Amino acid sequence: MNIPVQNCSSCAACVNACARNAITMQLDAEGFYRPVIDAEKCVKCGMCERVCPWNKPVENPNAADVSPKTVAAYAKNESVRLQSSSGGIFTVLAERILDDGGVVVGVAQLGKAHFGHIVVVNKAELSRLRGSKYVQADVGLVYQKIRSLLKAGRKVLFSGTPCQVAGLYAVLGNAATSADLFTVDVVCHGSPSVKVFEKYVAEIEKDKSALVNSTRFRDKRNGWRLFSMTSSLNTISGDCFQFSKTLREDKFMRVFLQNICLNTSCADCHYGKLPRIADITLGDYWNIAQVHPEMDDNKGTSVVLLNTAHSRGLFDSITDKVVQCESSVDAAIAGNPCIVRSSKQHPKRVEFFSNLDKYALDLLVKMYCPYPTIVKKLYYRLREVLGKIKRMGKMYISNLTIK
Ligand SMILES: Cc1cc2nc3c(=O)[nH]c(=O)nc-3n(C[C@H](O)[C@H](O)[C@H](O)COP(=O)(O)OP(=O)(O)OC[C@H]3O[C@@H](n4cnc5c(N)ncnc54)[C@H](O)[C@@H]3O)c2cc1C
Ligand code: SF4
Ligand code: SF4
User: Considering Cα of 338, then 340, then 342, then 344, what sign does the dihedral take?
Assistant: First the structure.
């Protein structure tokens, strides 16, 4: 039995709202989490349909701004910044909440192709949430846990995709306005299929005759812009090694960034818009070199949208831990259109998934998302070098002006 919903976002609000525990999330044929109802347990109360944020869009309960306060920022702690996807602002916010006796909820790697929300209560565990995992997350029953934590008077920082933030609000109802709840959404390009990532991991294991135990999706070994996908592997004899490819050469990043393996909901996302659904929105400030060159050293700079009054107080309390400058939402959107719009679905998505079990990922990439030609690669390289020279020139001039 299915819940009647077009393009389910896999937010799991229905699972968390069902008083009979009659719904579980299971992977469908394409590798996306879908609610499956146990007809034996279901009493047909209709709660799952009523709570579904995809059937009835949810708004930010804290009166978010259409023109949010926008800053470009990064963590002063260099090690945190380098381990994070963008500027490491998520960790600084999370540490603040933990210092106040609260808990932090975000996405961790739970298995080689299993990613899901966990509740973190101390700083040692925070590293598990750090960094983007570009695979659809298993929400589990985390919204129920958050409801109990808020009832018990704990401060909670929840982070996830915008559709997961909407799912949380839908389950919490009036409790979503609690002064103890802070929400963070990521600027979201879309959620890739778990099955495609499983295939990617299995192919690496076969090629390298070793087992993958973890993946870093945003390894900054070549800088923030040219980030790498890095897998850590173990051989049968116990040796550990890493396998790493830049975003331009890695086959998983190729299919992800070409929008061919995303959930169908992502092409019609209800939450890629202003006002944003969460209190705070975090993303990459990709055009920082053009807008605020003094904030760019290719180690990662975040765009931070402070959407509600509630969130501005929290951000003010971490200003001694971050380097920041005031910016504008329009400038951020110019370099990051997913703040206000959905990714366009690849025209061959259906064909790609129907061939997923038949062919290796390398071949699927050749068939549907071929790598750029040498001429295009040279053009990209030239653009990069010119950008670097321009940035260095601007930095030199601004240093002269300061002196
Ligand atoms: C699926 C996905 C798509 C994204 N698309 C874009 C984009 O198009 N443009 C852009 O600017 N930024 C995008 N981001 C956000 C960006 O990659 C950074 O996560 C963000 O800038 C925060 O970086 P940070 O350095 O502050 O903290 P980090 O420590 O890097 O951020 C980690 C946070 O991301 C959350 N997270 C990690 N993986 C997932 C997941 N699978 N599902 C839900 N939440 C997750 C964690 O809970 C944690 O709060 C995307 C993130 C994800 C997960
Ligand atoms: S969108 Fe969320 S609430 Fe609606 S059916 Fe899908 S998982 Fe359930
Ligand atoms: S693009 Fe929208 S629907 Fe897709 S994961 Fe992101 S927030 Fe959810």
Answer: negative
